[in-house]
């Protein structure tokens, strides 16, 4: 197993190297291993979809009644029933095929992007193009797109709840394990579907698609059978009860006509059949299909695709809608709002590079950053991308650092070394504890208790508005090998507030839900103050999970 192999052994087994695959290797590997996709049950053919329209109990009863009508010479009734059944099947088939095509198009648009090292160059590719042997670079916020053996790890943690059900993040490292162990204990491996919650790292892809651990679960899911919707269950129950009543009444009429009315058995039978056919609601199936189809078309105009016609009825029973905050109710694009220097709050557009403290903050934002923006391709953590946008807005160059102490959940800060200075960013309360001096109007002064209280008060004011706040600091540093001990005696520079703004359509969607007596609920792992601010802006008040 790969988790018991060294990094070099794993790379050799995957026919790769720490420099990644070449374009020629990628082509060979993709031909050998296929695409990195989870195979799902194939879309049913139009013929099978058409035949499935005749499986409902009500339709079966109509078919039986058409046959009986034909045998009894009532050809007009037979033709009408057959036409109704066929038109109903055509309508249902058309809607199902249309929904399948729309869903397939959406799935192609929603493929995750992956950072890989190919031809010794970092590239962004769709997740389904990942292949065995690829070297993938990951950081906090990334979703793993293929199983792999970790070859580099810096404070790396992942959430593997999609596989194991454990919600706690797992520390990852790159050393081989000596004993055979279960997935949850393979801390030198990453698995498809997991979320990187902290740190940075690289791994070599060892399994993709249906051969990944997630693929094995997907195979089990593909073997499950779809359950009928409440509407289908109710129609089946109604059809069954109606059939029993019609049969009982027809038999009763048959015997009454034979024994009381003294009619011929054949005549009595024809009357009973006519009664049964007349009692069957031939148009019910078509009416249900037409109404559901019209509802589906209406939903499509509202940008909601319904795969199964019968699911429309289930949607009509909804009383609560739970929605994720980030990326659903918000734009999932962090943007810098304000910058605070001691006793002065600036809009991000108002920075002046001629001022020493402003210039130092822009420099720190550029250096304490692992994101990159190239040719409209944005790679990295949303917060770091927002800081990079700030730097680019003021036409400040993107700088590189010599060494780094990455962010981790214990320290709540990160630091980098550039030339002869250390630059840090992190949680305001943590950064302030490590500061001894402060930049005020470009000059260093001793950081007093009053200064700290003023800064923390400003931090609380910004945070109460639903903004994420980061603090920045720096100090001279001549050592090359950074340690946590170097993150002391810092000089406080300032605060930067950021926000993931709500989507413009979110308030309207929430209002529409309330008008329909549907309770909208926002679910998020963010701080309650941030969540409340977004909830107030979009109209969800007090209903926060």
Largest sheet: 9 strands, mixed
Beta-strand percentage? Answer: 15-25%
Q: Number of domains in the coordinates?
A: 4
CATH domain topology of the largest domain: Calcium-transporting ATPase, cytoplasmic domain N
* CATH hierarchy, class of the largest domain: Alpha Beta
Q: Radius of gyration over alpha carbons?
A: 33 Å
Question: What is the total tally of β strands?
Answer: 20
Tally of DSSP helical segments: 18
Low-confidence parts, pLDDT < 50 over ≥5 residues?
A: none
Q: Helix amount, in percent?
A: 40-55%
- The structure class reads alpha+beta
- Under the CATH scheme, the architecture of the largest domain is 3-Layer(aba) Sandwich
Could you tell me how far the N terminus lies from the C terminus, measured between alpha carbons in angstroms? Answer: 41 Å
Shape summary: elongated
Describe this structure in words.
The radius of gyration is 33 Å and the shape is elongated. Helix 3 (46-52) crosses helix 5 (75-109). A hairpin with a 2-residue loop joins strand 16 (435-440) and strand 17. It has 18 helices and 20 strands. With 545 residues, it is an alpha+beta fold. The model has no long low-confidence stretch (mean pLDDT 84). It has four domains: 2-34 and 130-207, Calcium-transporting ATPase, cytoplasmic transduction domain A (Distorted Sandwich); 46-107 and 227-315, no CATH class; 320-331 and 503-538, no CATH class; 335-499, Calcium-transporting ATPase, cytoplasmic domain N, CATH 3.40.1110. 42% of the residues lie in helices and 22% in strands. Strands 9, 10, 13, 14, 15, 16, 17, 18 and 19 form a nine-stranded mixed β-sheet that branches. Strands 1, 2, 3, 4, 5, 6 and 7 form a seven-stranded antiparallel β-sheet that branches.
